[in-house]
Amino acid sequence: MRSLLVITNADAGTSDEERLAEALVVLREKASVEVAKTSNPGELDGVLHRAGGRTVVVAGGDGSLHAVVTALHKRRELDQTTLALLPMGTGNDFARGNDIPLEIEDAARLVLTGEPRQVDLIVDETGNVVVNNVHVGVGAQASRKGHKWKTRLGAIGVGKVNLGKLGYPIGALLSAFHPPSWRLRVELDGTVVNDVDRPVLMVAIGNGGNVGGGTELNPDADTEDGLLDVMISRAVKPSAKVGYVARLRKGEHDQRDDVVTLRGTSVKVSGDEFWLSADGEISGPERSRSWRLERAAYSMILPR
What we know:
Elements: E1 2-9, H1 14-27, E2 31-38, H2 41-49, E3 55-60, H3 62-74, E4 82-87, H4 93-97, H5 104-113, E5 115-124, E6 129-130, E7 133-137, H6 138-154, E8 157-158, E9 161-162, H7 167-176, E10 184-188, E11 191-194, E12 202-206, E13 210-211, E14 215-216, E15 228-233, H8 238-250, E16 259-264, E17 266-278, E18 281-302
Parallel strand pairs: 1-2, 1-3, 3-4, 4-18
Antiparallel strand pairs: 5-6, 5-18, 7-12, 7-17, 8-9, 10-11, 10-17, 12-15, 13-14, 15-16, 17-18
């Protein structure tokens, strides 16, 4: 019998607990399951210390997955661990981009029937990891503005649809009317692909393609292809910003003439002071930051 360690947020609400209970019924039909609730990095580290080779199942959203991957990376155990995901967040962008079902019982069945596949990871020069996507400029500003809308709308549901995923598009729309542009130097694999004489609206670096609950920021990104997808938007004029946001909502922004899409394995951004959003976590301000791809960094149970 397979052995699973399910890690969940100790602060999860009643609705999440009910969804987790549904998933556990499915998992326990064919696996031995231990559930561990954690509320801070110290508790998480202690739980992972006793994982003992079991498949680690993250019951949570993108933030929870980021926290577990970060902890395993710091413990130097990431490449020795197989992970699985029960998507229970608001956005669930990693799940969306990797065909993990959003219906909790279907996701639990995938944990039992899927195959471990090697997925990539983004690591910055400070050792911080990015599981899905990192972006700077108006995207980070949209995330900052969108967070309050995500919180407000996250309490509203229509059937099984949680409106919290609208937070990012609303933030992007609000940001379109008041953002500055940024003068940034972008280097891809050591080659300058944008210099400070060409202002940008944002730069997005994707391991996965989705952000903010399904907005396809890097539409062609693939967590298994060994490449970073880089999107540079130069839509800095007022009318261009509005057009960019409209196309972004449809995932068609990369078709614009003022948007550049590239691929590589390392990226450096420097210049004007900027904020960044990495897996939805906002940090900054920064003047320079670099990222590299770590290919096949860990195993994740995904559809066959």
